[in-house]
Amino acid sequence: MSWRPVLRLLAILAIMPVMLGQAGRFYPLLDNFNALLAPALILLCLLLALCLFRRDWLAGAIVAAGLLTGTIQLMVSLTSFPNMTGTGRLRVVTLSTWHANPDPAALARVIEAQAPDILLLQETNGTAAAMADTVLSGYFRLKSCPQKQCSEMIISRWPLRRIAAPDAAARKLPDILAARVDAPFGPVHVINVHLPRPTRVMAIPFRDELIAMASHIDDGRLIMAGDFNLGTGSLALADLARRSGLRRIEGFIPTYPANLPIPAFIAIDHIFAGREWVAATCHGVDASSSDHHGIACDLR
């Protein structure tokens, strides 16, 4: 049996997620394939090696075209940001606690070990609600609703207060929470985000509302972080950065899924920063019992 028909079929199937993601420029629903861009590129690298080993140049050319297209898109989406050196930093941590978290106490230990200055939590209206109310004792807290349990929380080492949406008559969006933090070096504005999955009808209006809020604040020290449900490399995520005027600073840190026997392979949690932040160093946070890993960034 000849390997060539099989390799060529595999090559065509392997580049389909990349090419369908490119079609997301015209059909936004296809942009969802870009969430798989990073694992797809790893698969294409392995398949290219196999094509070269088997000396199937046509299959290799197909794979190489998909690999080049996907690599360019992924590299364009990564912001170059100098690593932080020296002293004087602000540590920001974003973490989705998961509505059905089976061990919130383990999550609290992870958070305490990170010693954040500003902590942004999502999905705190589930089993992790009590943990979110008690973790980092002595910190200031802001919830996204007046009820005891809310879907989002901002926890800060320094005093903070809510920032209203730019349009007071606009629909209330409990999964977009903004605050001003009175840090010792001056005020920092923070937006905590949990956007709907891009397949849902309200995804685009929510993104538009988020961009409007970021534009309304228009502060060089603005930080926007959370669960965006948009993978690194997605066109919608790049559009969000362009229209908000912010830079995504964490690079590529896979955060989802974190509660399966396989490693996380999709990066859907992100941290954006305004123009006055000049350096950053970021790393993933093992979320222990959550379905998302977190992200911690030290900014200067």
Q: Give the amount of beta strand, in percent.
A: 15-25%
What is the residue-mean pLDDT, rounded to a whole number?
A: 89
Number of strands: 12
What global shape is seen? Answer: elongated
Distance between the termini: 60 Å
Count of DSSP helices? Answer: 7
Number of domains: 2
Residue share in helix? 25-40%
Can you identify the CATH class of the largest domain?
Alpha Beta
User: What structural class do you assign from the helix and strand content?
Assistant: alpha+beta
Briefly note the CATH topology name of the largest domain. Answer: Deoxyribonuclease I, Chain A
Strand order, sheet with most strands: 3-4-2-1-12-11
CATH architecture of the largest domain: 4-Layer Sandwich
Largest sheet: 6 strands, mixed
CATH superfamily of the largest domain: Endonuclease/exonuclease/phosphatase
Radius of gyration over alpha carbons? 21 Å
Low-confidence stretches: none
The sequence of SSEs as H and E is: HHHEHEHEEEEEHEHEEEE
Written account of the structure:
This protein has 300 residues and is α+β, with helices and mostly antiparallel strands. It has 2 domains: 75 residues, no CATH class; 210 residues, Deoxyribonuclease I, Chain A, CATH 3.60.10. It has 7 helices and 12 strands. The strands form 2 sheets. Strands 3-4-2-1-12-11 form a 6-stranded mixed sheet, with helices on one face. It is elongated, with a radius of gyration of 21 Å.
